Amino acid sequence: MVCSSPRARQNTNASRLLGSVSGILQVTSLLILLLLLIKAAQLYLHRQWLLKALQQFPCPPSHWFFGHFQKFQQDQELQRIRKWVEMFPSACPLWLWGGKARVQLHDPDYMKVILGRSDPKSHGSYRFLAPWIGYGLLLLNGQTWFQHRRMLTPAFHYDILKAYVALMADSVRVMLDKWEKLLGQDSPLEVFQHVSLMTLDTIMKCAFSHQGSIQVDRDSQSYIQAISDLNNLVFSRVRNVFHQNDTIYSLTSTGRWTHRACQLAHQHTDQVIQLRKAQLQKEGELEKVKRKKHLDFLDILLLAKMENGNILSDKDLRVKWTHSCSRADTTAASGISWILYALATHPKHQERCREEIHGLLGDGASITWNHLDQMPYTTMCIKEALRLYPPVPGISRELSTPVTFPDGRSLPKGIAVMLSIYGLHHNPKVWPNPEVFDPSRFAPGSAQHSHAFLPFSGGSRNCIGKQCHEQLGPTLTPRFELLPDPTRIPIPTTCLKKSNGSRRF
Length: 505
Fold this sequence. Notes:
This protein has helices at 6-53, 77-87, 108-115, 123-126, 130-133, 142-152, 158-182, 191-208, 218-239, 246-250, 253-280, 285-290, 297-303, 314-344, 347-361, 376-388, 421-425, 466-472, and strands at residues 91-95, 101-105, 394-398, 403-404, 410-411, 416-420. Helix 7 packs across helix 18 (466-472) and helix 8 packs across helix 9 (218-239). The protein has one domain (74-476): CATH 1.10.630.10. The model is unreliable at 497-503 (pLDDT under 50). It is globular. By secondary structure, it is mainly alpha-helical. It starts with 5 loop residues before the first helix and ends in a 33-residue tail after the last helix. The strands form 2 sheets. Strands 1-2-6-3 form a 4-stranded mixed β-sheet. Helices cover 53% and strands 5% of the residues. It contains 18 helices and 6 strands.
């Protein structure tokens, strides 16, 4: 009889354990390899499907994995789009990393076809906005979007907008008063931060019944900075192949930065909502609001009921407030800043606008709704600036059904298309000499395609606050001359961050 020693049994158990671990590692490695092969096959088949689907649309050569991303440096993306528009004036595929692609449209006939359909927003990059603005009008699709749009449309009734003009002019006056105090410093003024505070002040007064001015409130300045950070962080994430996964992104420094900025923006929003709710709880205040012929934006949200009869939760209120306030503030601030820059770099047009408004208002008179139709040249200059520098350079859709364009070319269901508003506005076949600032393009009676000028998109999903942007423009002609800073010439980019300086005067 042979007896094994304890040490021998231990060695045997250890060998079995090592053998088991080795076997598990081998099986795991094989499974990972198999999954990688399956994923590679899926990517290959998807790329082959895209190549066939896009064969009618030529484009510049691209890398098999990185696509055209290597050709698009962040600060040069719009400049590259202009070159591509000259080569492909109707449409051009843009290959992204990983074998993905989207078709960029630059032609008004193409735009008209897509904007006349009900295709949903492309889920890819838009989902990165969800932690910040939630699922409001920008991100919703289908019947839910229609319900929200119908609920909010009364807040933009013309009778309400008429009253907003005076509030807008008051916010502009506060900003210009601040500028006058800063003139003695004898240094260029970065206007974007000031304009952002002014637009936020305007939105707070017009849409949320805020009393006073927030342009001197430091908490509001930190909110503006958080919104600016979030815009840049979202665009940066779209371009980073390693930041597409939510879990991985949350572990990065930029992911944590995004989370902190979202918290700050949401805290500001919650404070506004709670303050207005407290005001409505005062004796007689709620009945006074209900008797108003037209409610402002926040009052509509607070008093609204969804079709199932449930009052909107605080989270629902925050989503709608954040979407409307954040996006309206950033797009309006960007558009206004570029309008001011365009006037600063074209002094003859600037002077003519000033003379037109001074001739209409005289000294010290406040602008009213009735004045807006009596400023044709100023309106022409504003539209031309928005053509050159559209606040939103592009919007995405995912085709829910196949589409055939007027020239006979077609795309199948499932293709993502980018309506490049910037490309459309700089298309030489649509706008001759597109880089020249020429307000006469928008002279009364001038002929242009119905979809050649889309600074606020078009179709059923156009910007709900379009009229507010158009009203705010004529109130901005300053009481003093604007001059550009020649040492820091701004370059338009797809995000708020300006390369080589900013819009300084």
